[in-house]
Design brief:
This protein is mostly helical and about 425 residues long. The protein has 20 helices and no strands. The longest helix is centred in the middle third of the chain and has 31 residues.
Amino acid sequence: MAALLIILILVFAAVGIPIAYSLGISSLITIFYKGLPLIVIPQKLFNGMDSFPLLAIPFFMLSGDLMNGGGINKRIIRVANAFLGDLPGSLPIITIVASAFFAAISGSAVATVAAIGGITIPAMIKQGYPNNYAAGVASSASIVGPIIPPSIALIVYGSSLQLSISELFLAAAVPGILISMSFILVAIYQAKKYNFPKEGKSDWKERIEAVKEGFWALMMPVIILGGIFSGLFTPTEASVVAVVYAFIIGLFVYKGFKIKDLPRLLSEAAISTATIMLILATSKILAWVITVINLPTIVASAILGLTDSPVLILLLINVILLIVGCLMECNAAIIILIPVLVPIVTKLGMSPVTFGVIMTVNLCLGLLTPPVGACLLLGSNIAESRFEKAVVSMLPFFAIGIVVLLLTTYVPSLTMWLPGILK
């Protein structure tokens, strides 16, 4: 039965059926085949979305759209350019830094590609960077979106296990920053190797002007993350604060949009949210089916039967997550794999908080890899580059991401150090 379920999911995904429908149809077929009660379907659909922490998702999605429409992202890029423009390969570095700042507000990788890559990819191409390289670096930079807090993926993970979302955010901060810093080193190395151009050095007058203009944009992540980590408000409340702040700054300070633009911005956020919530709802049905057919025990027995070495077991789990990340949407994979993998890692003595970060980093790397590769696909479209060439340009960043993933897996202090201090 477990094999049939897995085959159904893979076949439906391979023929191009949207992931939410693939999960729902596979679950429905399994329920009919096993003779399970159909009343479970509406119950799990509702339970999959009925969670207070999940309320943060629509608000963070809306705040990202308001930032983009309000010109906040442009101010962040200008500040980064003022301070980093004289470095080798300055535009890729600016893209990475700006993506990290934007990620600290939106929590979405795809939104980060659209908002930051939509500006910096054409700029890189205009300055002489290859189209495929521009797509590769902007897409790679975007994966910190679901890692650096606030993170939609960690909200989904935490709400499923009733964990502290704030603690998960703290745990993900160091790996997220480490990934961004590592990407910058890769960009500098490539710039020196291929003699990529610089933007040009800015004097302190230009830097001060850029900071003045971008002050309110830079304060947004400070207010949101500062409020969460200080305990002033919960992550869900922080998402509302983000919307209010982005609305006021975008409309009245930067005047990037007008009242008449709000229906369009609300509609875009609603569509993005509905997509995620439908995936979460159908994933909840599949997670229940997986538990009923005893797949967690089967997988655990198979993994533990191969080796009793914790090092090898964790390595095998990482390989499984990387493969799943290549095939499935991040939030759906989290819901489905929690009952399968969390019991295994807790048996090894790993904190569920640490594993939440490992799972998120793994699945975010999947946003760059074929056949799905949502971020790289969007970046390629913006750059008008062939997808397979963008894959080649992405590989050095992907490789350094794997290194950070292994460090996160085998050095628990990377994730538990900051939560321990602030506790």
